[in-house]
Amino acid sequence: MKKYLILTGAGISAESGIRTFRDSGGLWEDHDVEQVASPAGFQQDPKLVWQFYKDRYAQSLSVEPNIAHHALRKMEDELQDNFHLITQNVDGLHSRAGSERVIEMHGSLSTAFCCGCRANYRMEELDLSIAIPLCKKCGKSLRPDIVWFGEIPYYLYEIEQHLKECDVFMVIGTSGSVYPAAGFVMTAKLFGAHTIAVNLDRPDNLGFIDEMHQGKSTELLPPLVEKILGRL
Ligand code: OAD
Ligand code: ZN
Q1: Which residues in the chain belong to E strands, given as ranges?
Q2: Cβ–ligand 1 contact at 13 (below 6 Å)
């Protein structure tokens, strides 16, 4: 059986009501990205950065996974260990759709960790009325568990193994402009995978895509998954 590897970005959650990054002129929900998504921004104004992620966390819980997230969950139900999903999204919508083999390479809105002892916390166990939540073990400040600009994404070794092993690599709703994720399609192709993209606009790394499906992921992905599973 063929091994499928999927990479998703902000576009797959757009129709759940979460805005993408590049479409909003370099702003993330009206904030300067450097201010709210860099270690320097956090050092400068931790209260503002925490408020921003508390809002994003609340927003992520107020929206629902859409039929594109569900289509990927169905694909996983059938393919089991021949399916892996890497996401750049931090909204948790793949897991809420029931996906289990999810690699959250840019972290998650639903977790935080201590800047001192590195202890991990779930947002739901924190008192979010406090401006900067503190570690219960060492008393130092917690920070959102998001990979910020200039930081190294999570699970890169594991991702590289999947990129080398997959037969089909499919990218959905990502502009192909933020590295290292933008380079995955090239790696997969160089290791022999067939590459597919589902995206509203033409991605920046189009040169490495064998099969481009241009349009909305809620419209194009469900029939594509059915076709892959041999039902159409
Ligand atoms: P971008 O905002 O860069 O790109 C979103 C892509 O989704 C664009 O190419 C759109 O054309 C496409 N798109 C929009 N709506 C769509 C829809 N309904 N169906 C299909 N495609 C659609 O988002 P990402 O590529 O995810 O990093 O951005 C990558 C990273 O940059 C993010 O993970 C984030 C950001 O800085 C961190 O938070 C660390
Ligand atoms: Zn601590």
Answers
A1: 4-8, 27-28, 31-32, 83-87, 102-104, 107-114, 120-122, 142-146, 168-172, 194-199, 211-214
A2: no
